[in-house]
Design brief:
182 residues; four-stranded antiparallel beta sheet; 4 strands
Length: 182
């Protein structure tokens, strides 16, 4: 009987070790899954938002990334600065500086650095007589990038969606030059 109890204790000990290792693996997998989903959603969502402002993307696509309440109050989407310009291309760089979420939380926060380079021009039909006298093409104004704090929540289908974007710092010329040199 003593050998049987020892054997049973050994089996239970190993079963407990295997159970703890499996639980840790599941927790790490869920954390990595949430982290990756939020990271991709934030970068793609901010790039899509930039594309909509520049007239490059369809505004209906933003519903995949942002809540309707946020989109209704987003002042950047109402900005008409680039409306008259013909945008040939743009390069939006969105770098996630920090990200906080845990597998059991329904909220995530991310801090991102955004910078955008725009290639385009003001069409001749939209130029003033003074602008027409200058033979140089008139480029669009530079994008005012910066640092943003983004809040995300899981919706009823357990998908992450961006609920708020707050600009915490403007992009400085030194930051833009450093990114171009890198």
């Amino acid at each position: 009987m003593e050998y049987f109890l020892r054997f049973l204790l050994c089996v239970l000990r190993w079963a407990l070790i295997v159970l703890v290792v499996c639980a840790l693996c599941a927790g790490v997998f869920l954390f990595a899954m949430d982290y990756t989903n939020v990271n991709i959603l934030v970068t793609d969502g901010m790039k899509m938002r930039t594309g909509v402002v520049l007239g490059y993307n369809d505004a209906d696509e933003l519903n995949k990334f942002f809540t309707a309440d946020y989109l209704a109050g987003d002042a950047l989407l109402l900005d008409t600065t680039y409306l008259d310009y013909t945008i040939h291309s743009f390069d939006a760089q969105v770098e996630v500086e920090s990200l906080h979420t845990l597998p059991w939380e329904d909220t995530a926060t991310a801090v991102v650095q955004e910078s955008v380079e725009i290639s385009g021009e003001l069409p001749i039909s939209k130029q003033t007589p003074e602008q027409l006298a200058d033979p140089n093409k008139i480029p669009p104004p530079p994008w005012k990038g910066g640092t943003y704090e983004i809040t995300l929540h899981k919706d009823e289908d357990h998908r992450w969606i961006i609920t708020d974007v707050v600009k915490t710092a403007e992009e400085t010329p030194e930051t833009a030059e450093a990114q171009e040199g890198a």
